[in-house]
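Annotated sample (chain length 206).
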Amino acid sequence: MGHRIIFATGNEGKMREVRAILADLGLPVLSMKEAGADPVIVEDGKTFGENAQIKAQAVWNCTGDIVLADDSGLVVDYIGGEPGIYSARYMGEDTSYVIKNQNIIDRLKDAKGKERSARFVCNIAAVLPDGRVLHAEETMEGLIAEKPAGTGGFGYDPILYLPEFGMTSAEITMEEKNKISHRGKALEAIKRVLAAELEKDGRDSR
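Output written by the structure step:
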């Protein structure tokens, strides 16, 4: 089965995380740019899973390798699950996360304690060389912080407070984050599925 894994993203921060977790599968992990794939992708799905699959299949159509794509976002209960699948496009794609983060904090100014519950959700779709699609979805639970904190991570990390650490997702180390993050856990889950597929493939080709 496929001699390489392509992850459908142009985000370098994300690629570092992906490479670190998938390294022990023993296959090269390329970004779609490195694989020379640049399809037009219209993310018009209604769920994280649909959008992840749309991205993965668009790149798979160009390459035919094992292609992974994720769709992730911040779900804030107090504001009806926003920004959800629109996390990247919330308030406009070119709006800085400093502004997006402050807007969410402002909208929760009257929310107390558990009313501030929120989570990062990540769905990873894997399209195998034979066209089969596998999914893994995980979350990282927390609360919306009273104010942004930390310089690690990206996006909404500075405003998701993690009670078990007593700090935000942008304040913990990359190593800690990979263990508990929505993307880290979803990558681990999809890695187990891919490892089983690769092993089966190895047995079948003997």
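Annotation: The chain is about 35% helix and 25% strand.
Annotation: The mean pLDDT is 93.
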